[in-house]
Amino acid sequence: MGGLPMYGYNSQLSTLPVTPLTFASEHMGNEFTVISDFLESLGGDQPSMFSEQGMPVNVNTTEKFFLTAADPSDGTNEDRLTQVINAKFEAGFLKPYNYVNGYSRLQKYMDTNMSNISRQRILNVMGTFRPAFRSVAQSLTDIDLVLVEEAFERLLLDYDRVFSSMGIPACLWRRTGEIYKGNKEFAALVNVPLEMLREGRLCIYELMAEESAVNYWEKYGNIAFDAGQKAVLTSCLLKNPDPETQSGSV
Length: 250
Known about the structure:
This protein is mainly α.
């Protein structure tokens, strides 16, 4: 984990049985490795794992994507959207999301903004859901993950309409916390520019008081891999992420 010290580490987690790991997707294998390193690293000089390799882009497929996006073939809206998404994938613009960087960001935030006890509580949560994550992740292929990204892009488009019509604070984030959609009401609530609630510029836990952030991760660990859970009703204390404008905290 880039040599970042992990205080409050629960040594009992390191006694989990070790078995050979195989993943259908390198992306999921990397993510599972990072979760394990979260729990097992005690600091020291270690190689960084968070550089994402660039993908070569074929000029012809790139041109095809732009042409398809500008003028898709005749058909239903669903057919045209499928054509654009397929062309985007072939051009190398649509690929599995790299969650590894999200864990690096979380660890750095915990190291500089949380107490030892809070960090240990979050690590305990990760130790709890690691086996369930491994069970799910081992069967997923890169194509599965690309389809997830396709569904996520559709979700973002759907929430454009939902958020604009709700009139109440709302935002949408990835499982590692990066915010990808928010409405102007939520931006006003936490006193940040609306453009900061895009493309992972802020993480949801960066907008929460420490105890609320820990409670969030604990609730996430309880429901994330439970198919019977659909939603959670809870409360939290929000804050402005800019220490210079803490008067805007709520």
